[in-house]
Amino acid sequence: MRFSSLAQLRQLCEEEGAPIARIMMAEQARESGLSPEEIESRMASYYKVMKEAVRKGIYDNPRSRSGLTGGDAKRVHDYKAARDPSLGGEAATAMAYALAVSEVNAAMGRIIATPTAGSCGIIPGVFVSSQERFGWDDGVLVRGLFAAGAIGYVIANNSFVSGAEGGCQAEVGSAIGMAAGALVEMRGGTPEQAMHAVGLALKNSLGLICDPVAGLVEIPCIVRNGFGAVTALAAADMALAGVRSAIPSDEVIGVMLEVGSAMPEKHRETAKGGLAQTPTGRKIMKELYGKGDPS
Amino acid sequence: MFSIIGPSMIGPSSSHTAGAVRIGRAARQALGEQPLEAEISLYGSFAETYRGHGTDVALVSGLLDYGTDDERIPDALSHAASAGMQVKFRAEKKPEVHPNTVSLSLGGSADRIRVKGCSIGGGNVEIVGIDRFDARFGANQPTLLVFHEDRAGMIAEMSGILLSSQVNISHMQVDRESRNGAALTVIECDQLPGSEELRRLGEIAGVRKVRLIDLSEKEGTE
């Protein structure tokens, strides 16, 4: 890749007069030896999986394998239809769709890890709801996924994208940043605005720990995906309005690394702290695993 | 970048589900056929959370040669039963090197094998043991397992065959039980060795069997 920071990525965009998505597609083609068409068609197949997961999550009423979760996407979706959501209808839709994909994940359905399975709802929530709202064809969203991928690539190479390494900020936080930056680009913002959206979004999730109840990708992961989609919309709006990340986005990514490295092991996906070790979290764990010998 | 947007997978966890499918598939390929029986020992977080994460069905899916995004994964146990595969799980108490570790003891129509692997995050895996031999490979590249007796010139003969077919070796390791005893050579390749190379490797004097591990075909590289 010809870039390793967001600043370099932005500079490439400006030098070549190209959006982030186009830079990323060219880089990926060069690195992999595949044609741009092959790469685009693989991404298009991924976007189809995302749309299908949204549909399944809303209409097929998935229950998680553990039985702990399921049905919240439908609840939010029904509520939006029946009442006037405080968030407004569009943001509530993004939230419902993000919950839907995360619930499909917990129910052992097919998803695209973005960047991980734990944060797989945020990008589809933002993308699929925006497609419906703005009437974009699939090509816009597929290109948007390349923009999101470029941002995620920079985060992964300068910080981390797994909860076991850097806490939830690294999974859900990264996904919010990726979704926000990509949405700015899809809505016609500049690469500079997209980069600000990433920094604005990441700042809001710094320090978020990974504390899954019973070690499962359900509580609080699913609702955090719902919140994440809404935050991504907010960060994109701020950036499109001209709000800047006073601390440059690359430096914010550096803070995520610093905070994640200092995070105790019990707050990095081990279920040894946080919500997992609350009285109720422990009770749930005991009910799931306490019955007899697991063999 | 397709590891940032992707992989396409069956949830809920890239380490506990997708990684487990890949270890299962690698183990099946190390056996060289679909196992008739499998004894699966789980360690650490795998032992504690395997039911909620579907690690059990994911491992069996790999044994059935399913890819990580195969929608049959949740029902793999019943598919295995109807395919005549007997599966037993054991949650082990003792700690292992890595928290997500599994040891699969497989029996086929002609052979048995034991494969130990770890799921190290994001769907990436590391195979750390084959039978009594130490090994260490990620199965991200075509990987040859050559079971042979330890003798001078063996490695030169193997690499000669790969050289003649332009297969580049990216990494190689040898473990042996004793001098002149049984040995395992693990060869990671940049290109996929063909059936002709596998046949020629198998014909080297002192080579007992050759297996090819290649997980690429069902992982969205199409």
Automatic annotation (TrEMBL), chain A:
The gene is sdaAA. PANTHER family: L-SERINE DEHYDRATASE, L-SERINE DEHYDRATASE 1. Keywords: 4Fe-4S, Gluconeogenesis, Iron, Iron-sulfur, Lyase, Metal-binding. One of its GO terms (biological process) is gluconeogenesis. This is L-serine dehydratase. The keyword Membrane does not apply. Pathway: Carbohydrate biosynthesis; gluconeogenesis. Its EC number is 4.3.1.17. The keyword Electron transport does not apply. Its cofactor is [4Fe-4S] cluster. InterPro entries: Fe-S_L-Ser, Ser_deHydtase-like_asu, Ser_deHydtase_asu. Residues 16-276 form the Serine dehydratase-like alpha subunit domain. It catalyses: L-serine = pyruvate + NH4(+). Belongs to the iron-sulfur dependent L-serine dehydratase family. GO terms for molecular function: 4 iron, 4 sulfur cluster binding; L-serine ammonia-lyase activity; metal ion binding. It comes from the Bacteria.
